[in-house]
Amino acid sequence: MNARERLIELRKEMNLNRKQFCEYFMIPYRTVVDWEAGNRRVPEYLLNLMIYKAEAEKLLQKNEEEKEEKDGTK
Questions:
Q1: What's the angle, vertex CA 41, arms to CA 25 and CA 49, rounded to 5?
Q2: Which residues are CB-contacts of 41 (< 8 A; sequence separation ≥ 6)?
Q3: H/E element holding 43?
Q4: How many angstroms separate the CA atoms of 36 and 42, rounded?
Q5: CA 50 to chain centre
Q6: How do residues 9-44 score in pLDDT, each as one tens digit?
Q7: 32 burial level (CB within 10 Å; 0-12, 13-18, 19+)
Q8: Cα–Cα distance between 4 and 32 in angstroms, integer?
Q9: Residue 64, CB half-sphere, CA atoms under 13 Å: how many?
Q10: CA-CA distance, 40 to 38, in Å (whole number)?
Q11: What DSSP designation does 28 have?
C-alpha cells in the first residue's frame, strides 16, 4: 500500500470527512485533496506521525473508557 492509499485509509478509519481530518491535523484542505488525488506526495515521516497520533489517542480514549467502567463513573 502506498502513502496516498494509507492516508485515505487513515481518514476513513478515523471516520472523518476531509474537512474534519484537516482540522484535526491542522493541515490545509487543499494539501490533503492534492495528496489523496495523487497530485502531490504525502511525506512518509508526516504520514507516520499522523498514524502514531491517531493510534495513541485511540489508545488513550480506550484506557479512559475502561477506567470509567471500572470506577463505575460511566
A1: 35
A2: 3, 4, 35
A3: none
A4: 9
A5: 6
A6: 999 999 999 999 999 999 999 999 999 999 999 999
A7: buried
A8: 10
A9: 6
A10: 5
A11: -
- Are 9 and 1 in contact, with CB atoms under 8 Å apart? yes
Q: How far apart are CA 14 and CA 6, in angstroms?
A: 12
Mean pLDDT of 3-12: 96
pTM listed for this prediction: 0.81
The label of the residue with cell 482540522 reads 23
Residue 5, pLDDT > 60, answer yes
pLDDT category of residue 74 using cuts at 50, 70 and 90: low
C-alpha cell at 4: 496516498
